[in-house]
C-alpha cells in the first residue's frame, strides 16, 4: 500500500463521514439537544413542540412557494423519495431543523462552545445538501433564516410562559 492510496482512503472516508453527518444532522441535533435539556423539562417540552411546529411550517412554506429542487440530484440513500411538500426545495428542511435546534439550544444555555459545535454541524448540513444537489444556495439560506426565526420565537414563547408562571 502506497502513501498515495492511504491518503486517498483517508480522504474518501472523511468525505463519507461528512456526508453522513450532514444528511443526519437534524437527528444528531435532536438527540444532543434532548440530552442537554433533559434536566430543564419545560424547555425540553418546548423544544419538541416547536420542532414539530417547525416541520409543519416547512411543509406549508414549500406548498405555498412550490419551488422545485435542483435538477439532476445525487441520491445519498435509497430512501430519498420526495412526495407532496418534500418534492419542493424552498426552504431546505434539513437546514431549517438543524439551525432551529442550534438557535433554541443557544438561547436556553448561552453556551458558546455548543453554539460553535452546532454551527459546524449546520455548515456540514448546508454543504451536504448543496453537494448532492438537493437544494440551491437560496433554498439553503431560506431554511437557515426560517430555522433561526422559529428557534428564537420558540425560546421566547417558552421563556415568557415560564416567567408568567413564576410571578
Quick structural overview:
Helices cover about 75% and strands about 0% of the residues.
Explain what this protein looks like in three dimensions.
The structure is a single chain. With 167 residues, this protein is mostly helical. It has one domain (18-68, 88-166). Helices cover 75% and strands 0% of the residues. Helix 4 (93-109) runs parallel beside helix 6 (137-166). The chain is flat.
| Structural class assignment | mainly alpha
Overall pLDDT metric:
90
| Biggest pleated-sheet summary | none
Total number of distinct structural domains: 1
Fraction of residues in H or I helices: over 70%
- Cα end-to-end separation: 69 Å
Summarize this structure as a short list of keywords or feature phrases.
167 residues, mainly alpha, 6 helices, flat
SSE layout:
Blueprint: H1 3-23, H2 25-36, H3 41-65, H4 93-109, H5 112-131, H6 137-166
Amino acid at each position: 500500500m502506497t502513501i498515495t492510496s492511504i491518503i486517498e482512503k483517508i480522504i474518501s472516508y472523511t468525505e463519507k463521514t461528512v456526508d453522513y453527518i450532514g444528511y443526519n444532522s437534524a437527528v444528531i441535533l435532536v438527540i444532543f439537544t434532548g440530552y442537554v435539556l433533559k434536566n430543564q423539562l419545560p424547555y425540553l417540552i418546548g423544544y419538541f413542540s416547536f420542532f414539530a411546529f417547525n416541520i409543519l411550517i416547512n411543509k406549508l412554506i414549500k406548498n405555498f412557494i412550490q419551488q422545485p429542487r435542483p435538477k439532476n440530484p445525487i441520491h445519498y440513500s435509497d430512501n430519498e423519495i420526495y412526495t407532496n411538500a418534500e418534492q419542493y426545495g424552498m426552504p431546505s428542511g434539513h437546514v431549517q431543523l438543524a439551525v432551529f435546534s442550534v438557535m433554541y439550544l443557544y438561547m436556553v444555555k448561552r453556551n458558546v462552545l455548543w453554539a460553535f459545535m452546532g454551527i459546524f454541524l449546520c455548515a456540514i448540513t448546508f454543504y451536504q445538501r448543496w453537494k448532492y444537489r438537493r437544494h440551491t444556495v437560496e433554498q439553503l439560506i431560506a431554511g437557515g433564516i426560517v430555522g433561526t426565526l422559529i428557534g428564537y420565537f420558540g425560546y421566547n414563547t417558552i421563556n415568557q410562559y415560564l416567567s408568567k408562571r413564576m410571578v
